[in-house]
């Protein structure tokens, strides 16, 4: 039984090993980023999850059991987690919190259910990243310290020779002005529940966002599971992008070729399945919270 779906009281002898294991797992992700940041060193792949998403390393490191679990004994650490309260020697989520956040939980649940209910579309080939550099001068490119694998003209040709059908608003809004009208869809913030689909890499990464948005109802374990998947998806996202990341140890997924397309779709299909499993775990959390 996972922490986020169980119920009851955990004594310290039971929850302390969980907290320590979580800290060791997450430190392997947070420490390299914090070390780089202290030296002013950027990473074109790994930094995204820290700069685009709003969950801070300290928050990801902090263990908490999620909805339905109270902790006993020395609970000072968990008592400091936003949304938790203490009564005697026990810490647990504020019983009034579900009511105060019911609208947000409903909105997140509805988006997750809508996304999960659609068949995955697996032929976008990651062209959103190419559309973000389309007809840009070298100094305008988002990752302008990273060379384009095919150069500016070659990258533009890839965009112009493909059908772009990005369904994800938070990717589409970064398209260059010249690329906006090339997209077959017009996703907006308000139409996310009608547009998002489980094959989209960004929708898969965003499972992490919805996990931490649901905190503290979501267990730290589940948030970390979602982060772990988002890291893997981000790597594919950038390997299939127009950027040449071989200096950082990433081989390209050349989506302009038949072999590259096949490689991309195969990985995309696996990620869609894994993201779906996590999405349904989050739906279960939301349902439990809304049920009271």
List the main descriptive attributes of the protein structure presented here.
mainly alpha, 4-stranded mixed sheet, 14 helices, disordered N terminus, 4 strands, 5% strand, globular, 292 residues
Question: Can you tell me about this structure?
Answer:
This protein is mostly helical and 292 residues long. The protein has one domain. 53% of the residues lie in helices and 5% in strands. The chain is built from 14 helices and four strands. The chain has a four-stranded mixed β-sheet. Strand 3 and strand 4 form a beta hairpin. The longest helix is centred in the last third of the chain and has 34 residues, at 258-291. It is globular, with a radius of gyration of 21 Å. 36% of the residues are buried. Residues 1-6 have low confidence and may be disordered. This is 3-methyladenine DNA glycosylase. It comes from Micropruina glycogenica.
């Amino acid at each position: 039984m996972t922490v986020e779906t169980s119920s009851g009281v955990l004594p310290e002898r039971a929850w302390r090993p969980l907290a320590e294991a979580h800290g060791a797992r997450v430190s392997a992700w947070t420490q390299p980023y914090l070390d780089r940041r202290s030296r002013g060193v950027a990473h074109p792949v790994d930094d995204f999850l820290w700069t685009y998403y709003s969950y801070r390393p300290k928050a990801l490191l902090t263990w908490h059991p999620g909805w339905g679990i109270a902790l006993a004994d020395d609970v000072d650490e968990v008592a400091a987690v936003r949304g938790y309260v203490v009564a005697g020697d026990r810490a647990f989520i504020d019983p009034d919190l579900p009511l105060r956040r019911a609208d947000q939980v409903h909105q997140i649940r509805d988006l997750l259910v809508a996304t999960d209910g659609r068949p995955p579309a697996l032929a976008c080939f990651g062209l959103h990243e190419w559309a973000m550099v389309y007809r840009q001068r070298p100094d305008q490119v988002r990752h302008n310290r990273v060379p384009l694998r095919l150069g500016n003209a070659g990258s533009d040709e890839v965009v112009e020779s493909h059908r772009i059908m990005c369904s994800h608003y938070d990717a589409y809004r970064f398209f260059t002005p010249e690329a906006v009208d090339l997209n077959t869809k017009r996703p907006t913030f308000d139409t996310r529940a009608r547009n998002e689909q489980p094959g989209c890499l960004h929708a898969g990464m965003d499972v992490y966002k919805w996990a931490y948005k649901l905190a503290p109802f979501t267990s730290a374990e589940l948030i970390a599971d979602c982060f772990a998947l988002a890291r893997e998806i981000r790597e594919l996202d950038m390997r299939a992008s127009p950027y040449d990341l071989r200096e950082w140890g990433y081989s390209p997924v050349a989506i302009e070729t038949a072999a590259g397309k096949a490689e991309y779709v195969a990985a995309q299909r696996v990620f869609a399945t894994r993201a779906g499993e996590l999405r349904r775990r989050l739906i279960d959390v939301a349902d439990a919270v809304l049920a009271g």
